[in-house]
Structures are given as structure tokens and as C-alpha cells.
Amino acid sequence: MEKIYGANNWKLTIRRCEDHVEILRAVTCDTKAILPDTLFDLPVTVLGSYALSPAAKPAEGEEIHVSSGGDGEWSNRALQELILPPMLTEVQNFAFYGCRSLQTLHLHDRIDRWGTDCFMNCHRLSRIHLTRISEEQGASLAFICDETREELDVSVLNTDGSELRLIFPDYGEDYEENCPNHHFDFHISGGGYSYHHNFPGKQLSLRAYDENWAQYLRKQHEEETALRLAYYRLRYPIGLEAFAQEQYFDYLRSRAEDAILWQISEKDSEGLTMLLDKLPMETAALHNACEQARREGSTEALALLLERQRKAQPRGLARDFDL
User: Fold this and answer.
1) Per residue in 27-70, pLDDT tens?
2) What is the spatial distance between Cα 113 and Cα 110, in angstroms, rounded to a whole number?
3) Which of 85, 205, 321, 322 lies 20 to 30 angstroms, CA to CA, from 251?
4) DSSP helix/strand/coil, 175
5) Using an 8 Å Cβ cutoff, are 95 and 76 in contact?
6) How far apart are CA 213 and CA 185, in angstroms?
7) What is the enclosing helix (H) or strand (E) of 248?
8) Are the beta carbons of 95 and 48 closer than 8 angstroms?
């Protein structure tokens, strides 16, 4: 086994081709790891079937040990965050099968071939960082949303440096046995189904995304998820039309105190400023927010809240000094 030094610890089985490298197996002992961009001066472009699956059988190929000096259990069972190679174009069947600890995935929007059930049994996957490589969208986001039922918190970095952040709420699927008719009835629960499967032509349509909102609120949903969804569309308003902007602000106005308290915990002063400018706050709610900012030691938030509190205080009666 050839040993090279890299940013993380990997035991790789690869296939070296004329102009690229395919990773057939990749096992790490790290909780956060970056797969190599290149190997032997060739770009890594393919992630093979079951490549990161903890239960995968060994594959035939060239073996490489990438080392950064750490050690631990080599199984991928503890892998929580993974950065994929930027030149990756193909992810084959069951590539991440059984990566039960995987929570965060970073990838570039260059992958145009996805296999079957790549994320099966990756139930903790909840954070996606997608970097666009051109103004033309790839199909990666549509594929990942279609493959998962859990809530996804997605950040999209565009080529011009602008950022989009979207929540795709979770939903449930189950089969109920209908004994008299000898068949199973299929049921969908929760309001997230339309978000995960509303990609016209496998492309993200922000208008279609925003049009899901009214239906989502009518269905079973988590209030905290709805709050974050509305906030992120307002905080990162790419493609946000007037009708959608007003519906999200209406929702946040109805939960103004919850939104402010959550934003204090996020320590995002720009976001907090936006909410304080737009949302009505009762005196008691402002007091509660100040107390939370003090408890968390958030001086920026406390300064913003005290200024809002000062402006909200009624001014004294006008004085007339004429004799």
C-alpha cells in the first residue's frame, strides 16, 4: 500500500485511468474529512458504488494510504462531515450507504450522473453546501432532495459570490395494510413532500419553492422549521418576489418574539437588525430578548436591542416655558 500525506486520513482503493482517477473505496478514521481533489496529478472524478459504505466489501484496485498523522477506528461510522472533490462528475449506486453519522456534505454542482439510492440509511444528513460552477444549474440538488425525506438545510454559493439558503422540511411515508382488500395504502405525512419533489426539469425554481408555503402551513409542520424557512428566504432574498416576501414577513410578525430570541442565539447581528426593523415587538418581549442577550454574553445583540428599546419608549410631555 502506497502512503502519501494529505489533509486527512484515508485508506483508498482507486482505479487510475488515462485522464482521471476513480475512488472505489474510501475509509477514514476522522469525523470531518476532505476527499483528495487529485491523486498522481489526475483529478478525482468518480465515486464508485458503495465507496464510503461502512459495510462495503473490499474492492479490487490500487491501494493508497493518505495520512495526516491521526488514527482511530477505520470504518466511516463516525464520519460527520465530508467535502467531495470539486471535479467529481459521477457518484455511483449506494455510494454513501449506511453512513449513519454523516450530517454535512459539501459538493460542487458538477455531478451529472447519480446512481441509485446513494444516500440510503443516511438519516442524519441535514446540511448541504452546494457550490455552483456556472450560471446553468446542475441536477444535484434535485437528486439529493428526491433521495431524502429528512429536513435539509441547504446553502447554495453562486458564481457571483451571492448566497442562497433554503430549508426543505421533512416528511413521512408509510404503508398501511388494508386487510379486507388485501393491499397496502400509501400515506404521506408532513408538509415537506412538495418541497423535496418540486423541481421542474430537475432545476430549482425559487417561485415554485415559495408557492409551497401556504400549503405547507395548512399541513402538519414544525413551527420552528417554518420560522427558519421564512427567515432564510428573507435573509437571502435571491429571486424573492413581492408576494412571497409579504407572506414570510406576515408569518414572522405573528411569531416576532420567537424569531428575535432565535436570532440572538444565532449571533447574526445583520439578521437581527433586519428583524428588529421589520417586526413589531411588545415592551415585555424586548425585555425578554435583552435578558437572553445578557445571558448569552452577546454584546452586539444587546446593543441593538437596547437601542430598539430606547426608541420604543414614549417621550415625555412637551414643555411650554412661556410666562
Assistant:
1) 999 999 999 999 999 999 999 999 999 999 999 999 999 988 77
2) 9
3) 205
4) strand
5) no
6) 27
7) helix 242-254
8) yes
